[in-house]
Amino acid sequence: MRRSIFYIISGIAALVLFVAVSSAAFAPTFQQMPLSMKGSSDASPYNDEAFMTEAEKAIKKISNSTVPTGSKLSEVTDAYYRLIMENVSPEFFADANNIVGYLYYTSMAGSTFEDYHSYLNSVSRSSDGSEYYTVVDQYYQVSAEFWNKIKDKFPNMTMYTLPDASAALPQEEEEQQGSTLEGLEIAIPMTQKTPDPSSPDLTEKFKTITVRWFEDYVDQANKPDDDPFNDKTEKSPGHRFLIGEGVDWADTTYMDLVSMNIAEDFYDKANYIDAFFYLISEAKDRYEGYIDDRSFVSSVSNGQENYDNAKKYYDEAQKAIGHFDDIIPNGTNSTLPKFPEFGEVSMGGQEMGELGFVTGDMADYLSGGTADSTDN
């Protein structure tokens, strides 16, 4: 047997053993709510009504259902962080604090429940996972205490339920995965905050952020290969764009924009802008998965599935642009670079059967010598 392969197998076995032994150290612990409502201030209008509108949207999503996971979990988490920043009246402050408490502990119950199922399916699993489920139940019990304090304000809604430890992770139905905008095929998990005429209008700021993103990143990616400011690389503009800084910021930009208060007549267009940033960030995640498939030591895939999914999100992002490209100034490119061809990222390393693809550098590292060393 080649010495490098022997050391690779030994190294992987040692790594698996280490993860199994140390996994208990990463068991979850109960986390109290880190942020409550900010204090009421008469320096700006009280937003009690807007607060309740947002809260009702989030709580309705999880009413008559099980602990939130997936996109529902994202919406509950986002609602918590949105609402703690609202300025509410002193008379409503205690109720508002109880509502965000319910949302926070519900969010933590859902997140830990997902972690519980991820652990059950982990190769490093070393227990029955009860340490995870115990924490889920703790979050559930605390959120129930908050629900009892606020349920009178939501008379047509009920608290979510917690499945048994042996139950499967709830699967979202297609219609529960978010809102699908007209002309698009992929749902987005969160839509634009409902316009509130009593709060400052941030429409122009919203537009400025969008336009500058296109100026800084789409224009840059579309520069021709002989442009003196272009990155001298053999990779295509689409590849450079997807792994570049701009798309790295897309998910953060999406979360920032959906929470802005904008004019009612801009609301529909804002939703398509939100959709664009969500879709392009998802395209990037899947494209990076495609790169990993073709590069990682443990890969057993050529990346086709991740590539196809990345292209689907990328194409949807371009379609979304068609609903707001009129706000992009003349001279600024609103067309995304051509999506990279499959195979532009070459397969790396040596094919090692069940080990997947092991790069030469990894073989050298694990073997303590060169990948070509052999037994004497």
Describe the protein in words.
- This protein is mostly helical.
- It has two domains: 31-174, no CATH class; 203-345, no CATH class.
- Helices cover 51% and strands 1% of the residues.
- The protein has twelve helices and two strands, in the order H-H-H-H-H-H-H-H-H-H-H-E-E-H.
- The chain has helices at 3-22, 48-62, 70-83, 90-120, 130-150, 203-221, 237-242, 245-248, 250-258, 267-293, 304-321, 360-367; strands at residues 350-351, 357-358.
- A two-stranded antiparallel ribbon has the order 1-2.
- Residues 1-25 and 349-376 have low confidence and may be disordered.
Distance from first to last alpha carbon: 10 Å
Give the proportion of residues in helices. Answer: 40-55%
Specify the number of helices.
12
> Which radius of gyration do the C-alpha atoms yield?
25 Å
Write the H/E string, N to C.
HHHHHHHHHHHEEH
What would the average pLDDT be, to the nearest integer? 80
The SS-based structural class is mainly alpha
Q: How many separate domains make up the residues? A: 2
Main sheet characteristics: 2 strands, antiparallel
Shape: flat
Q: Give me the count of strands.
A: 2
Q: What percentage of amino acids are in beta strands?
A: under 5%
Strand line-up across the major sheet: 1-2
> Residue ranges: pLDDT <50 for 5 or more in a row?
1-25, 349-376
